[in-house]
Design a protein that fits this description.
It is a single chain. This protein is of the alpha+beta class and 133 residues long. It is 26% helix and 38% strand. It has a five-stranded antiparallel sheet with strand order 1-8-3-5-6, with helices on one face. It has a three-stranded antiparallel sheet with strand order 2-7-4, with helices on both faces. It is elongated and about 50 Å long. The two termini are 13 Å apart.
Length: 133
């Protein structure tokens, strides 16, 4: 089962918690045991799993990514001017695979799934692919 999901971001760099949306697709699928792949088809965004209990974690992650990959750098050559967003996307990665057991996502107590937009605000989409097994 493949579920496309649309979302709109509101900031240039944004980590959007999509855990509930992914969990809802898993429940909707009826799959009790298997895997789910969450995939982002954009070159300036990605998918991550990390803590979702303390909102300061998102702020800290975005702060450090900005320090490592500043928006402007004298040696960047990409004409669109968004090299930093491509670098952040490469670091984050385009997908995450999770286990489904008992009809639910198998996540750690503090973990959440994030859509990471590094070149917003934009209309975006990601895909949730659920596989029984």
């Amino acid at each position: 089962m493949l579920y496309p999901v649309k979302l709109s971001t509101t900031q240039r760099d944004e980590l959007r918690d999509i855990t509930r949306e992914v969990a809802a697709r898993v429940q909707q699928s009826g799959v009790q045991s298997g895997t789910v792949l969450v995939y982002c088809p954009h070159t300036t965004a990605g998918i991550a799993i990390n803590e979702n209990a303390d909102p300061d974690v998102k702020k800290d992650v975005l702060m450090r990514l900005d320090e490592v990959y500043p928006w402007e750098h004298p040696q960047y050559r990409h004409v669109e001017g968004n090299t930093a967003s491509h670098l952040k996307s490469i670091t984050c990665g385009p997908s995450q695979q999770l286990i489904i057991e008992g009809g639910r996502l198998l996540l750690g107590r503090w973990q959440g799934i994030y859509f990471c937009d590094f070149d917003g605000p934009r209309s975006r989409e990601y895909y949730v692919k659920i596989m029984q097994g």
